[in-house]
């Protein structure tokens, strides 16, 4: 179920507040998101996965065993696994456009003088109180 416009705005405000409070933490969390690989990275991950699959099946077909263990197939599995991780994690740093909060936006459209100086809990409490005053 998609988020409503109000929920999306609130999520953006929380994200912007997080960037204002601790930009280093926020950028590290943003860079660790899963499923954010671009098209080129996905293609590379798919190619690595296919190479691993070929090694896995080829290792069983040629029957090369070291100490009774199919070593080529093991290497193929590890290559396949790394291809899956590459697709999942996306690899590399996040794109430049998604690395920071939107510039020029203060809390609630710039109503307050300097929103970065107040603590996150104080701003969230004020928003909560404003919501009930409007009803």
UniProtKB/TrEMBL annotation:
InterPro entries per the UniProt record, alphabetical: DUF3040
Disordered: annotated segments: 94-135
Signal peptide (residue range): none
Chain segments annotated as transmembrane: 43-62, 68-89
Keywords: Membrane, Transmembrane, Transmembrane helix
Stretches with biased composition (Basic and acidic residues): 123-135
Residue spans of biased composition, Low complexity class: 95-104
Pfam families assigned to the protein according to its UniProt record, in alphabetical order: DUF3040
Protein known as: Transmembrane protein
């Amino acid at each position: 179920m998609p988020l409503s416009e109000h929920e999306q705005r609130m999520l953006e405000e929380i994200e912007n507040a997080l960037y204002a409070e601790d930009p280093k933490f926020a950028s590290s969390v943003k860079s660790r998101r899963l499923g954010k690989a671009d098209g080129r990275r996905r293609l590379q991950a798919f190619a690595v996965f296919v190479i691993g699959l070929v090694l896995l099946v080829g290792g069983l077909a040629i029957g090369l065993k070291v100490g009774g263990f199919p070593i080529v197939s093991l290497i193929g599995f590890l290559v396949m696994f790394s291809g899956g991780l590459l697709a999942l994690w996306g690899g590399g740093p996040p794109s430049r456009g998604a690395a920071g909060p939107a510039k020029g936006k203060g809390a609630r459209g710039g109503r307050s003088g300097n929103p970065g100086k107040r603590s996150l809990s104080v701003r969230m409490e004020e928003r909560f109180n404003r919501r009930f005053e409007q009803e």
